[in-house]
Specification:
- Keywords: Endoplasmic reticulum, Glycoprotein, Membrane, Transmembrane, Transmembrane helix.
- Residues 694-717 have a biased composition (Acidic residues).
- Residues 439-581 form the Lipase maturation factor 1/2 C-terminal domain.
- It is a multi-pass membrane protein.
- By secondary structure, the chain is mainly alpha-helical.
- It folds into three domains: 1-149 and 610-652, no CATH class; 153-290 and 310-453, no CATH class; 455-604, no CATH class.
- It has helices at residues 5-27, 30-34, 53-59, 74-94, 101-117, 125-140, 144-147, 156-180, 184-187, 192-198, 204-210, 214-228, 240-260, 266-273, 280-286, 292-297, 301-326, 345-379, 384-412, 417-421, 425-434, 494-502, 511-522, 525-531, 588-596, 612-624, 629-680, 684-697, 699-724; strands at residues 329-331, 336-338, 455-463, 470-471, 547-557, 571-583.
- The strands form two sheets. Strands 4-3-5-6 form a four-stranded antiparallel sheet. Strands 1-2 form a two-stranded antiparallel ribbon.
Amino acid sequence: MGEIILPRRLFLWCMAVIYMVAFVSLYVQIPGLYGNDGLLPARWQLRYTGKPLLDQMLSSPTLLWLGPQLGLDTQTSMELLCLIGAGLSLAATLVEAFRDSLVFLCLWVLYLSMYQVGQVFLYFQWDNLLLETGFLCVLVAPLTLIRGSRAIREHDRVTFWLIRWLLFRLMFASGVVKLTSRCPTWWGLTALTYHYETQCIPTPLAWFAHQLPVWWQKLSVVGALVIEIPVPLLFFSPLRRLRLGAFYMQVLLQVLIVLSGNYNFFNLLTLILCLSLLDDRHVRFWLCKTDKVEEEKNGSKLLSWLSVLLELAAWSLVIFGTITCFDLQYDATKNLVSSRTAYTYHQFNQFLKTVTIPCVWIGVLSLTWEMITSMFRCACVSGFLRRFWGMVQWSVFAAASVSMFAVSLVPFTFIEYDSNSRLWPGVRQAFEVVDRYQLVNSYGLFRRMTGVGGRPEVVIEGSNDAVTWTEIEFMYKPGNLSAPPPVVTPHQPRLDWQMWFAALGPHTQAPWFTSLMYRLLQGKRDVIELIQTDVSRYPFHQQPPAYLRAHRYRYWFTEPKADGSYPQRWWRRVYDEEFYPIVHLGNTFLDSMLNQYGLKDKSSPRRVSNTTVAQMVRWLRAQVRGVPAPMLIWTLIACSATFSLLQVLLSKTKRTERTSPACDASEKASDHTEAAADGCSDLREETHEQQTKEEEDGANSEEEVEQSDGDEDEEEDRMEKEDIFDNSF
C-alpha cells in the first residue's frame, strides 16, 4: 500500500466534524432527556456515597463526578462538557494543530462521560462506534501541540491499519447477523420491501424507493449482502485496485442508506472509516494532481499484467459466487432478474465456522506486514538519534496496535460461538477489563426486519375533559398522515428513536415512556421541546393536558394513483390497540408505574447553581433555545467547510506569489548562461582532461553525495505531500 499521509489527515478532519455533530446534537437535548425535570435525570446515575473521588471515577468513569467540586449540578455539568467537546472539535476542524492526539483524547473522555450516564437514550451502536473510532484517533493523530510538527511518522501505517480492521469488523458482522438471525425477510430476500417504510425515520426518497418493483428490491438485498460479507475481505488485498473497488462499493451502499433514511452520523462515520482503504496516489487523483513520474516508476509491465489477471480472477469469483448462491437468472419475457437464496442455514453456518478463524489470521498477516514495513522504514532513517527515537515510537505504537487488535477479536468472534471459545483466555480477560470504556465493541445492524405486518407507531393524545382528544405530533417521527418525512441527518432526535423502539412491544418494556407521560402532564417545557422545538406548535403549550393516553397504529406508505399521479398523503394507517391507558396527575396507575420504575424523585429540589460558569452555560442555552437542531448543526458544518476552503485558496495564492519571483530569477539565469556559453567554448578542450581526472578522484565522494541527495529528495517529496492539505483537511 502506498503512502497514507493525505487519507490520514482527511480522516482526522472528518472525525473532528463528526465529534462536533455528536456533541451539538446531544447538547440541545440534554435538558429534556437528562435535566432535573427531564425524562431520565442524569443525577440519579451519580450516587454520592462518600467514597474517594478516584474510587467513584473507577466505578463509573465520567467527569461528571467533578461537578460538585465546581459548584455545578449534574445538568449544568453535562451541558458544560458538551460545550467543551463542541468547542474543541470545532477548533480541530478549523486549525490543523488541534487535530492532535491529546485533543482527541479529551474528546473521547468527554463523550465517554456522557455515555456513562446516558442510559437508554445513548445506548446505540453508533455511540459505541464513535467511542471506539475516537479512541483509535488518539493513536492515529500526531502530537502536534507537544512536538510542534505534523510530519509523517514511520509507524502511522500501523495505527491507521486499525481503522481498516474496524471497518472490516463492522461491515462483515453487519452482513453475517442478518443471516444468523434466521429472519425470514433476509433469507427470502424481501427485507427491503419492508425496510423503507418501517425504518425509524425515513426520508422523502424512501417513499419513492418503496415503490420499486419487488424483483429490484430482492436484487438490492443480494447486493447489500455481497457488499457486506465477501467484499470486506478485499480490504486486506495487496492489490491496490481491489481495495479501491471495495472502497467504492462500500461508499455506494452507505450513500444509498443516507439518501433513504435518517441515521444521524452513523453512515457518515462509516464513510470516514472507508478512507483507510485509500492512499495518497488516489487522493491526489481526486485533486487532479496525479504524479506521472510516480506512475511510470511503479509501472512494470509484467507485474501490471499479473495484477490485472489476479484482479479479474477475484472479481470473477465474487460474481460467480453471487450468481450461484442467489440463483440469479434473467427472464427475457418479463425483462427482470429473478433471485432466491440457494443455500441453507446449516450451509451458511458451516461457511461461517470455516471463515471466521481464517479472517482472524488474515488480519494477523496484514498487521504483521504493516509492522515489518514500518520497522524497516524506521531503520532506514538517517541519523542515529532519529533512528533510535523512531524505533522507540514504533515499539510503543506497534504494541498498542497489537493489543487493540487482540482485544477486538473477542467481540468480533461473537458472530460464531466455536471460534470465540477457541480464543486465548487472556484475551477474554483483557476484554472484560476494558469493556466499560467501550474501546472495542460488537456490531450487527438490521439484524431482524420489524414491521412486517405494518409499521407500529405510538400516537399520544391529550385532552382537558377526557372527551375531546388531540393528537400530539412529534417533529420527526411519523404521525400526521399528510406530513412529508423529514431530513434530519446528521442530527439524532433520541426521543423519536426510542418511540420507534417502544412501539415494537408493550409499554412495560420502555419504562421511560411512563416518565414521558408524567412530564407532559406536568407541562415541563424542556420535555415539550423534545417533541416540538417551536413550543407554539405544541397543542397544549398554554396549559398542560389534564388527561393523556396512547394508542398503537399500523402505518404504511401510500401507493401512487392508478393514473400514475402522486397521492396527497404520504402515509395510511389503521388502529391496532391501546398502548397506554388514560392517566392524569394523581392517577393510581400512573403513580404505581412511577414508583415501580423509580421514576418519582422523592429528594428535595436542589438549589440552582449561581456560579459564573453556571450563569454562562444558562446564557448560552437561552441563545440556542428554539433553534432547530439540524439547522444549528448544518450552520456549523457550513461555516467550518467555508473557512477551510478559504484557507486552501489563501495558501494557493501564497504559493503562486512565492513561485513567480523564482520563475523570473530562473529566466534571468538562463539568459546569462547562454551569453557565457560562447565565451567558455574555447576552454572546454583544455579542461576536459583535468575534469576527467577530477571525476575519477571524486567518484567515491559523489556516491555519498547522491545518497544524501536521495534522502533529501525523499524528505522533500514527503513535505510536498503534506503541503497539499496544509490549511484544509
